[in-house]
What does this fold into?
Amino acid sequence: MICTANPAFAETLPGDGHDTGMPFVSFRRRTARPRRGDDTARSPLRLAVPLGNREFWADADRIARLTLTAVAAYLLALAVLPDGVPRPLLAPLTALLVVQFSVYQTIRASILRVVAVTAGVLVAVMAASTIGFSWWTLGLTILAALVIGHVLRLREHVLEAPISAMLIFALGAASESGAAERILETLLGAATGLVATLLAPSVRVRPAEEAVHDIAERLRALIEDIADGLRGERTEHEAARWQEAAERLAREIGRTDRELGAAEESVRLNPRTQARRLIDAGVALRNAMETMEHFTLSLRGLTRSLADDERLGEKGRLLTDPTLRRELGDALAGIAASIAAYGRLARSDLARDARPFLAEHDLEVRVDVARERRARLARRLHERAAAGDLWPLYGEVSMDVDRLIENLRVEHRARAREHWRRHRGASRHLPERPVQVVQQAGHQLRRAAGSGRPDRRP
It folds into this structure.
């Protein structure tokens, strides 16, 4: 909790200790570091631990969890299965395969693996009991198991059906009792893996939060570089270099979907109190990344316009006009400060009880400054356009600057926040299609209840 002297402007930020459950590997390459002494650039989720230490302890934690889970599954299978059965190695194997980083993924993997193993075992038992084992029987068994796996939509678990069938042949357990034991081992392993995940579920918000911070800082650094270049001496091929950097950054944004998806899944069905506070973190970070993606598209348009102006040579009136260069540089400097403030805002409202008034006020002030500078630039462009024939290019530059500022308006973020906090119910935990079914059924029930009369008799 971060509070000011005035309670009306108290700002609630997510607390420390967001367990990633896995080592975080950033795709950061040449990210500009925050300015020294700028405490506002520090993430509220960041621990005061070097990255290497966090990776080491995350790896150590996962290795220990997997080892203990597999051993527990084996001991449980020994206790449950009758004496004389082969070593129940399928139980620890299943436990290792189903344990994922999130509760939702573990439940999904457990169900799919149990279905795949059951299908493979049943196919092997039927083949062995009816036609025996031979090379063509093996081929038919694999074919049937693969077909069943695709029909059941096992996806990445589809190969486990024929593998289970071949395991039954290898163990010589192609009988009803042997098949039941293999299925029971799978159930025990899946149950052990699920319990282990429920006992220590992870909240993987940090990697996505770091990705948003990284993109915001890289955008700020690029725009500041363009602004400094415009306010300094003109250099050869400067606009082409800016355009190439904007194109490269646009491609990098598309690689953050994995971190965002992991953040969203890590809070689904997660019993931890911390996960319930951060139930909106995934969608909040995705909204921020989508905003910055639109922002980057506008930045690409601006750099393309500047590159077109540069190709005009001495006929270009923007990059060769010191006054226009200075005005555009000032406007972009204000936009750079605004995107940095937006990055801080995007990382300050991840918790459900967050009220980022200070971050919103900071962004609003910086956007207002950028608007004032943009207005001065527009007046200069109109003055120059009245004396020449380059208004189409000037107008495109002006519209690109407008779009950059419009993307960062506080109202857009506040409206999106209210929307995702009202978004409750089944959609928190179910996939898209079941969500639509549940919501449609609920709407029909409410409509039927509203149309009924209390005095109506059957």
Notes: The longest helix spans residues 281-311. Residues 90 and 194 are 16 Å apart (CA to CA). The two ends are 57 Å apart (CA to CA).
